[in-house]
């Protein structure tokens, strides 16, 4: 099962590499990213890049601030796994 973005973006706002991620982050967050990347064992570097790419995408999202505020306020719409499974089954899509 794969999730599709709410607002697709072509091409990605943030390139999926260390330079792209670093350029999208500001000040302290950029330094934190590079610190985590440099401290990561080679086998963990990809996970660090993936995690921080998501952070950079949120930071550069036009509605990222609103999403963060809604999440912190507890007003972000959510869907349970059971609802997603039911929706996929109704649509004839694979589950699992």
User: What sequence of helices (H) and strands (E) makes up the elements?
Assistant: HHHHH
Instruction: Bin the helical content.
Output: 55-70%
Largest sheet: none
Name the overall outline: extended
Rg to the nearest angstrom?
Answer: 17 Å
Derived from helix and strand composition plus strand pairing, the structural class reads mainly alpha
| Distance N to C terminus | 6 Å
What is the residue-averaged pLDDT?
A: 88
**Strand tally, please?**
0
Task: Pick out its properties.
mainly alpha
Provide structural commentary:
The chain has five helices and no strands. The protein has 96 residues and is mostly helical. The chain folds into two domains: 1-62, no CATH class; 65-96, no CATH class. α1 (18-24) runs parallel beside α3 (45-60) and α2 runs antiparallel to α3 (45-60).
Q: Short description, anyone?
A:
The protein is an all-alpha fold and 96 residues long. The protein has helices at 18-24, 27-39, 45-60, 64-73, 81-90.
What topology does this entry show?
Layout: H1 18-24, H2 27-39, H3 45-60, H4 64-73, H5 81-90
Helix pairs in contact: 1-2, 1-3, 2-3
């Amino acid at each position: 099962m794969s999730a599709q973005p709410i607002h697709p973006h072509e091409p990605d706002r943030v390139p999926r590499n260390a330079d792209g991620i670093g350029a999208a982050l500001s000040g302290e967050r950029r330094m934190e990213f590079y610190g985590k990347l440099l401290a990561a064992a080679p086998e963990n570097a990809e996970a660090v890049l993936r995690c921080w790419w998501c952070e950079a995408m949120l930071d550069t999202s036009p509605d990222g601030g609103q999403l963060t505020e809604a999440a912190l306020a507890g007003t972000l719409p959510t869907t349970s796994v059971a609802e997603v499974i039911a929706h996929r089954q109704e649509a004839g899509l694979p589950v699992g």
